């Protein structure tokens, strides 16, 4: 079957930015998502539509269809105890922070004794991203997956 609304898609991808590899699922489990529910960035989701099991393709996504443009003055001073992901922080490290809208990634720019200045832009904001994709499996979503709005099983959510 080809990918459409409520397809559960397993795929491998390699993400590069300006020729530098940033992430890859190769050698591990594929990623899984529920199509049509904004589980993945819009530029990649649009490119997935109509593709089928075994297809490989490459798509380059502008910031507006990926993680948005970078915004200046998105710096905030955050208590170190609220930064998750490491014990000691250095400028340039990426931390997870709990917010009203769920977890988000921030980049540490300056570390003090009790607080760190953090750039709240997504680490991939402002970047044009290229995804090399291999579709591993396409299947119809279960009622439970549709109700949850995400894929279950390998590469998806585990409850
Ligand atoms: Zn679920």
> What share of residues are in beta strands?
35-45%
CATH level-1 class of the largest domain: Alpha Beta
Number of domains: 2
Mean pLDDT: 95
Largest sheet: 5 strands, antiparallel
Task: Characterize the overall form.
Answer: globular
Q: Tally the helices: what do you get? A: 2
Q: For the terminal residues, how far apart are their CA atoms? A: 27 Å
Number of E-type strands: 9
Q: What structural category arises from helix and sheet content?
A: mainly beta
> What is the CATH architecture descriptor of the largest domain?
Roll
Describe this entry's structure for a reader.
The protein folds into two domains: 7-63 and 127-148, Roll (Chitinase A, domain 3), CATH 3.10.50; 75-119, Thrombin, subunit H (Beta Barrel), CATH 2.40.10. It contains two helices and nine strands. The longest helix is centred in the N-terminal third of the chain and has 7 residues, at 42-48. The two termini are 27 Å apart. It has helices spanning 42-48, 143-148, and strands spanning 7-17, 20-24, 31-34, 56-61, 75-79, 94-99, 102-111, 115-119, 129-140. It is mainly beta. It is globular and about 55 Å long. The strands form two sheets. Strands 1, 2, 3, 4 and 9 form a five-stranded antiparallel sheet that branches. The protein has a four-stranded antiparallel sheet with strand order 5-8-7-6, with no helix packed on it. Zinc ion (ZN) is lined by residues 148, 150, 152, 157, 159. Zinc ion is lined by residues 148, 150, 152, 157, 159.
């Amino acid at each position: 079957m080809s990918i459409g609304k409520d397809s559960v898609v397993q795929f491998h991808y390699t993400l590069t930015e300006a020729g530098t590899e940033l992430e890859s699922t190769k050698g591990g489990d594929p990623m899984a998502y529920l199509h049509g529910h904004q589980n993945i960035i819009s530029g990649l989701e649009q490119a997935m539509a109509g593709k089928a099991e075994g297809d490989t393709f490459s798509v380059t996504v502008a910031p507006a269809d990926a993680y948005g443009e970078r915004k200046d003055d998105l710096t905030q001073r955050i208590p170190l105890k609220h930064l998750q992901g490491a014990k000691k922080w250095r400028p340039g490290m990426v931390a997870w922070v709990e917010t009203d809208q769920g977890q988000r990634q921030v980049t540490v720019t300056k570390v003090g004794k009790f607080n760190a200045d953090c750039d709240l832009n997504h680490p991939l904001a402002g970047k044009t991203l290229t995804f090399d994709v291999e579709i591993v499996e396409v299947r119809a979503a279960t009622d439970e997956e549709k109700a949850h709005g995400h894929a279950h099983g390998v590469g998806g959510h585990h409850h």
